[in-house]
Amino acid sequence: MRGKDYKHFEDPNFQEKLVSLCKRRGFVFPSADHYGGLSGSFDYGPVGTQMKKNIKDLWWKTFITSRPDCMGVETPILTKPEVLQASGHIDNFQDPMVECKDCHHRFRADHIQQFVESSKNPKDRLAFPCPKGNSECHGNNLTEIKQFNLLFQTHVGPTAHEGDPSSITYLRPETAQGIFQVFPKVTQFSGQRLPFGLGQMGKSFRNEISPRDFLFRMREFEQLELEYFCEPQEAEQWYQYWINECLSFCNKVGISPDHLKLQHTDSADLAHYSKATCDIQFLFPQGWGELLGIANRGDYDLRVHAEHSKKDFYYKNPDNPEAEKFYPYVIEPSLGLDRLFYATLVSCYHEEKLEDETRVVLKLSEDISPFKFAIFPISKKDPLIDMSMDIWKKCLPYTTMDYGVAGSIGKRYRKQDEIGTKYCITVDFASLEDNAVTVRERDSMKQIRLPITSLVDHIALNKPFDFTTK
């Protein structure tokens, strides 16, 4: 099976392989697993942390710093109840929940329906069974559906443990509401004219009933969100524009277009704030699921915050004194970083049959791979280590570079293939004589010999390597 033909959705063991790779190579693994773990929580290791940072940097550059019409903000995680009351989260941010009366596990009701529809057991289609399937569970013995609010409530201040209702606050369920709170101030001091966007990266929290499917559904996750403010009559145009921009960003990250599709939400199923919503769905190992969402939020958020706070959330064109003030419409491209991280690993995972082994390689984009280069001394002899470290120091200002001495060169190559490192540089005994090194390319495994001065020049100037020559 060549890597380019690998289809994860045809491999029943793919999820297990991917999770194993993530643990083995330090991408991501369950949090607090020495104490039994915490459902819906994960730790990112050094490699995964660097890859997440690279994705965030690429998003920030693409959506914020490379555009004259977008700016970044940062707002707190702790959110006043009044903000979430106005936004509708306290009343509407709910999922349907059922409980198995036998084992007392609780589940999202719509996930039960998905389980029934996907099950190959004919008996499951006759009733709603407990997905746990424990021996004490007896068929359709679930409670009636009730609504479960997903907000994380906490308390602040010295009266937090005295039952003081004024101490109640919430961990934000999305970064968007913080952006809407700073909108009036930004319009005052920035002088920005419509259309313009405010973007934010940061942690959000949702008390999911049943976290599941690795990084797909978590209780603590990172969001990358842009709120793009525009004239109401231009909203449809910008809505379509941002759908296309999000698809383009997926391509930049390295996600295969073959694993993406658009899902437009029916009007009857729209969220309370939305006039139109389009999900960019990805073919995860467990099936199609939302990767990014683009919503036309209309003027809902600015209007309700103005009504509840009695403050001015209007926009008025500063270039036209006669212009009437109004609430701009908002187009929101929103994505979960952890879910995008997961989808990228899935899309870039390849297996290749070699003569005596199966090579696993992550064909990550150079923009997001944890390391673009790795350098190896072929042995632990001091002259080779000294030369390798000297090259590492010269190149480090221009790129990300790993360094390794453990194991054979073949094993070091395989490790870097699984991490997604694009180029491996080997310093051998001949390097001490000719001041040259071997550069090996990840995908083709082709190698070239290059003088050290040329190597540093290529890296410093981001010049491509020519692997057509020996």
Automatic annotation (TrEMBL):
A GO molecular-function descriptor: ATP binding
PANTHER family linked: DNA POLYMERASE SUBUNIT GAMMA-2, MITOCHONDRIAL, GLYCYL-TRNA SYNTHETASE/DNA POLYMERASE SUBUNIT GAMMA-2
Q: Name one GO biological process term.
A: glycyl-tRNA aminoacylation
Signal peptide (UniProt feature, chain positions):
none
Origin species: Arcella intermedia
The UniProt record lists the Aminoacyl-transfer RNA synthetases class-II family profile domain at 16-377
Task: Tell me which Pfam families the record gives.
Answer: HGTP_anticodon, tRNA-synt_2b
Q: Which InterPro entries match?
A: aa-tRNA-synt_IIb, aa-tRNA-synth_II, aa-tRNA-synth_II/BPL/LPL, Anticodon-bd, Anticodon-bd_dom_sf, Gly-tRNA_synthase/POLG2, GlyRS-like_core, tRNA-synt_gly
- So what family is this one in? Belongs to the class-II aminoacyl-tRNA synthetase family.
Checking PROSITE patterns in the record gives: AA_TRNA_LIGASE_II (PS50862)
EC number per UniProt = 6.1.1.14
Gene Ontology cellular-component annotations: mitochondrion
Please provide the record's keywords in A-Z order. Aminoacyl-tRNA synthetase, ATP-binding, Ligase, Nucleotide-binding, Protein biosynthesis
Enzyme class, broadest EC rank: ligase
Protein name as annotated? glycine--tRNA ligase
